[in-house]
Design goal:
Isoleucyl-tRNA Synthetase, Domain 1; 454 residues; binds zinc ion; four-stranded antiparallel beta sheet; 3 domains; alpha/beta; 14 helices; 40% helix; Rossmann fold
């Protein structure tokens, strides 16, 4: 029995679908103007893993993940690059799919684009106006939060409400500062669509409400996204959907993943610790499985700290998994302990500890099936050709990172049975004053006067 933490009730509950044969799941997708970073990847990998464990128990999971391809950030990025919006969004979307594919994330069942659903959004906005939940003001259509019979479903903000008399600067088209935009005017020359309220474009929240209803109906099973989307995005989605459809709920379970830090701090371009999926795979080519395991190494609701050391541990673990799983001779079933861990509110750290157990005991059939269930491709990374610029600077001492990288390349070469290449890396390490021994636990390397396990 699957159990999930439901943000609506703030507790772990048994997962009971509306229809046992068809689960409906919606996850907020990317705004396509930039390459996906590790935080985006964590969310995609978490919900892909949830989807896979649901698919293990239920015959059909309808997984809808939208693409936001009209947005202020997209417009300003396109202007900055001197590129038209369609080209920018198509290119960025293709990169997103490629990068997520490298991490084993399955393509969604349906991947609707916001710009293909403007009519659905306009219908929904018109319905909200007709039902008295939205009003038109200075070319905007706004959702009137005060008309929502059940506000604060995900976060109770009643104590924070600013009185209607306290106008926010520049927001004098709103009856209350909490009211949010469903439709906003666009200037001539800006992307936009004709509407009953004038030329303009939709707000972000209405996109998800309209596309979720279009593909999954007014009430569906699971709505997912990062914890940063819980408020106001999901709160507003619920308000729009329930008020437009006259339902009590939008989705029966809301599931949120925690944020990601790098070396203990929030990722930011100004701090220089901002990592895209490509940055990571450029440093460790072909190690998508290890990146996936790293992104699953903490409980999904907790913060996850990404470090190179943690990734390197998972590179070593993947190498052991591949060599044990390669001995599998018949199709097995996933380890019961691993399935149970995933069904217990997606306890991925416990599931990963089961992988360690299966490796240690050489249970290759169960390991192969378990790794597949976790979304691991088990493809050995291609061994890159020697890249001279990757070597340490002449005369300098190689740092641990460089040694670990070489040790891992050598391990990959051994797995690919390219022993000539493995030997030449061993020679390269020897030239750096590092010796290497292969133990049952994996390679162990030694610098003058010390021992390290890689
Ligand atoms: Zn959304």
């Amino acid at each position: 029995m699957m159990k999930l933490y439901n943000s609506l009730t703030r507790r772990v509950e048994p997962f009971v679908p509306l229809e046992a044969r068809r689960i409906g799941m919606y996850v907020c997708g990317p705004t396509v103007y930039d390459l996906p970073h590790l935080g985006n990847a964590r969310s995609a990998v978490v919900f892909d893993t949830l989807r896979r464990i649901l698919m293990h128990a239920f015959p059909h999971v309808d997984f809808v993940r939208n693409i936001t391809d009209v947005d202020d950030k997209i417009i300003s990025r396109a202007t900055e690059l001197g590129e038209d919006i369609a080209t920018l969004t198509a290119r960025t979307h293709a990169s997103y799919l490629e990068d997520m594919g490298a991490l084993g994330v399955l393509a969604p069942t349906t991947e609707p684009r916001a710009t293909d659903h403007i009519a659905h959004m306009q219908d929904m906005i018109a319905r909200l106006v007709a039902r008295g939940h939205a009003y038109v003001s200075q070319g905007h259509v706004l959702f009137e939060v005060a008309t929502n019979p059940s506000p604060g479903v995900l976060r109770d903000t009643s104590g924070l409400q600013v009185g209607a008399s306290q106008r926010v600067d520049g927001m004098d088209y709103k009856r209350s500062p909490a009211d949010f935009v469903l439709w906003k005017p666009a200037a001539k020359g800006e992307p936009g669509w004709e509407s009953p309220w004038g030329y303009g474009r939709p707000g972000w929240h209405i996109e998800c409400s309209a596309m979720a209803a279009e593909y999954l109906g007014p009430v569906f099973d699971i709505h997912g996204g990062g914890s940063d989307l819980e408020f106001p995005h999901h709160e507003n989605e619920i308000a729009q959907s329930t008020c437009a459809h006259g339902t009590k709920q939008m989705a029966r379970y809301f599931v949120h993943n925690g944020m990601l830090t790098v070396d203990g701090v929030k990722m930011s371009k100004s701090r220089g610790n901002f990592l895209t999926v490509r940055d990571v795979l450029r440093r460790y080519p072909g190690q998508g499985d290890a990146v996936r395991l790293t992104l699953l190494s903490a409980l999904y609701r907790h913060e996850l700290d990404f470090t190179w050391g943690r990734l390197e541990e998972n590179i070593a673990l993947m190498s052991s998994i591949r060599s044990v799983a390669a001995r599998s001779s018949s199709p097995g079933t996933p380890d019961a302990g691993l399935v149970e861990a995933l069904q217990a509110n997606l306890n991925t750290p416990l599931a990963i500890s089961r992988l360690h157990y299966l490796v240690k005991n050489g249970l290759s059939d169960a390991l192969l099936a378990s790794a597949r269930l976790l979304g691991l491709s088990l493809q050995a990374p291609a061994v890159p050709q020697a890249a001279p610029q990757d070597g340490p600077e002449a005369g300098g001492q190689p740092d641990d990172e460089e040694i670990i990288r070489l040790v891992s390349l050598r391990q990959q070469a051994r797995e690919a049975r390219d022993f000539a290449r493995a030997d030449s890396i061993r020679d390269e390490l020897a030239a750096l004053g590092v010796s290497i021994k292969d133990s049952p636990q994996g390679p162990v390397w030694k610098r003058m006067g010390g021992v390290n396990a890689a």
